[in-house]
Amino acid sequence: MNRLTLSEQFFRDQASANASGGLSTVLNRFSLLARMLASEIMRAGFVGKLGYTGTTNVQDENVRALDVISNDTMLQVFENMPMVCGVASEEMDDMHILPGGESGKYIITVDPLDGSGNVDVAGQMGTIFGIYKRRSNAGHPTLDDFLQPGRDLVAAGYTLYGPCTMLVYSAGGPVNGFTLDRSIGTFFLTHPDIKIPEGEGSYSVNEANESKWDDKTRAMVKAFRLQETKCGKRAARYAGALVGDFHRTLLKGGIYMYPGEAKKPEGKLRLLYENAPLAFLCEKAGGAASDGTQRILDIQPQKLHQRTPLYLGSSGDVREACERLR
What we know:
Layout: H1 6-16, H2 21-43, E1 52-56, E2 62-64, H3 65-78, E3 84-89, E4 96-97, E5 106-114, E6 125-133, H4 143-146, E7 155-161, E8 165-170, E9 176-181, E10 186-191, E11 202-204, H5 215-225, E12 235-236, H6 242-252, E13 254-258, H7 271-284, E14 288-290, E15 310-313, H8 315-325
Parallel strand pairs: 3-5, 11-12, 11-13
Antiparallel strand pairs: 1-2, 3-4, 5-6, 6-7, 7-8, 8-9, 9-10, 13-15, 14-15
Helix pairs in contact: 1-2, 2-3
């Protein structure tokens, strides 16, 4: 079968959107990062890169060795790229100014290794990214360049590291999925123009947190568990990695949920690094994304590491979940 390569698709997207070559170059660097991290993850157990470093990150989460490696690798991949002026990463306290990119017109937001807790059990992991145009003029980017709502994204995507390595992205048009042929190190288009199904699929939520939810959230999740929802029967699936759960939802339909808690109504997941990029992809594939009260892509970030609840997936499922929360 004659399949498009990732680079060929980049150029098609660029031409259809009348975009400059800079965006395809940035996306191509994410494909390089995907290949590098896929190799690191496969080798981690053999070379002693599993386990914790004994430190915590800005999220007050224990840092694994692979978290550090993934973040450092990401910074190396994007250094001295004249079209990218700065990076905000889940693993760093503040925005990072990239040397050589002072005149760059793009900034990127990244969760370098989502689901790193799965590394010890060979579970799914991923990288999530968003690409924005900077608001300021040339020179060092400002905080305002990063605090943009998700509707202003020019491209977003994720890489899934599992039995195969897949890169899924949209540059404002269709959502396309590419699978890495490890024998030659090339991504090929295997899932063109992904559309999230309606009326089928699973529900994904960490039900061990039920005691921390408010009554409406408990009742809403119970309706999915007991197959009492109007949107149809749903089986429970939960991989413990946002990318893995979202990838299944994107292809099979259903809903992913990470509610806020009674004492932590803002939830756990980060708006800039996780929620907004995946919401962008979900909507481009015909789905929906909400924090329970409003569209994720309409939320104006107030700080780099802002958190929001997340309800993400088929439009009917997300709509019903939000109706039950009201």
